Amino acid sequence: MLEELDSIVKGLEDAEVYVSHVLEKTVEVEDNRIVGASAGETFAVALRVERDKRIGFAYSTASKERLRRVVEELYERAQKVAALSPRVDWWEGFPSSKCSQVPGLFSEEVANKDLDFLEYLLRDIIGKVPESFSLSASMSLGLNIWAIANTEGTQYEESVSDVSLGMALSKKEGGYMSKSVWDVSTSHSKVPLPEEMFERLLEEANMLKIRPERVRGERVVYLDPRAVSQLLEFLSVMFAADTIAKGESPLSDKINERVFSKLITLSDNPLLPGGPSSHGCDEEGVRGKPLVLVDNGVVKSILSDLYWGYRLGTGGGRGYRPNPFSPPSPSYTNLTLHAGSSKPEGIKVLGLTGLHTASSETGDMSVVLSPAFEDGRHVEATMSVNVLDLLNEKLLGVTSEGRWVGSTYVPGVIVRVELH
């Protein structure tokens, strides 16, 4: 695909072409029943041009056979969009990069698994669910072959296989349903075993109650890696160059200042072999490099795509597309909270319900700690706090062991907070 794409791009001027060919198979389970099994394919093309500091963007579905014709059509359309777009005076052009492949992103074995294989694994688990529990799950296999080429000589192609498993388990009692315990797993090369995840969740789910006990007052709380991953997802928005540039992040004027506890070191490495979101290039052709976002509490770097990186003078390298039909925007790859030396203690929290209502502009959040457990009892509480305070003066420790949750590598975090 890359050879043809490079040939097509040579006939263009000040342009970038991105192609994504995705094949995905998914099986869904709800309340102990398979409710969906699907296989899909998407071949997408997105094109950007620059005309007198004006950016035009166009996209379409396509096929390998129609690639040249679709690019020609999008090129004309993008130029018309550019003519109507405002000037971006800080734009410095498309990059000229030489990128190298990251090992461990593709497995022929994973790519060749079929829907029947996924159904077999999940049906086996459904048969193990006790009568008083409800299982929801999703398991998918994906293959994404994507390529990018521009008129500055950048050309890169990458094949990525993915297998992911998500599972949630609730308890049923008297016609009511408890909150769920949950977990996720993803890999490029190894199919996760649903039975292992299910057994761990069943042990936790046995402690669930329909009406958990409410706890209040100042308490020591242990945020399990699953809860910490949710916290980092929220925190990552504050490091995005677009929110920084617009003044919509509490970190906008905090570069090189100590904002977090000295126990917090946060990094992002797209070149990690086999990493869940590793890439040799980002999705606008900038060569990947590791970043230290926070070093012993001091904010050091932000996540920038080209558009906002040019504006702030930070350059790009984290321009990724939410979907094949969208222009790049700032995003993390393999976000890592570095482990500490503490041991878990306090109320164990698996999830932060309501985090989607938190303000990334201020860091304020009010979330329900759910599910949570104290001495084997299912409890629940509300925590209203600023995330910067939570990871600074309220932080007691970071545990010595971590794990991957999606594209975040996270240990546990111990805090002292007021609950209500």
CA-CA gap between termini:
57 Å
Give the SSE string. Answer: HEEEHHHEEEEHEEHHEEEHEEEEEEEHEE
Helix content: 10-25%
Helix count equals 9
Q: Biggest β-sheet: count, sense, barrel?
A: 12 strands, mixed
- Shape category: globular
Domains, number: 2
Mean pLDDT: 97
Task: Tell how many strands the DSSP assignment holds.
Answer: 21
GO molecular function: metallopeptidase activity
Pfam families: PmbA_TldD_1st, PmbA_TldD_3rd
InterPro entries: Metalloprtase-TldD/E_C, Metalloprtase-TldD/E_N, PmbA, TldD/PmbA_N, TldD/PmbA_sf
Organism: Ignicoccus pacificus DSM 13166
Helices and strands, with pairings:
Layout: H1 2-9, E1 15-30, E2 33-51, E3 54-61, H2 67-84, H3 108-111, H4 115-126, E4 133-150, E5 155-173, E6 176-177, E7 181-187, H5 194-205, E8 213-214, E9 217-223, H6 225-238, H7 241-245, E10 266-268, E11 291-295, E12 298-299, H8 306-312, E13 319-320, E14 329-330, E15 335-337, E16 347-349, E17 352-353, E18 364-374, E19 377-386, H9 387-390, E20 395-405, E21 408-419
Parallel strand pairs: 8-19, 9-16, 15-21
Antiparallel strand pairs: 1-2, 1-4, 2-3, 4-5, 5-6, 5-7, 9-21, 10-11, 10-15, 11-12, 13-14, 16-18, 17-18, 18-19, 20-21
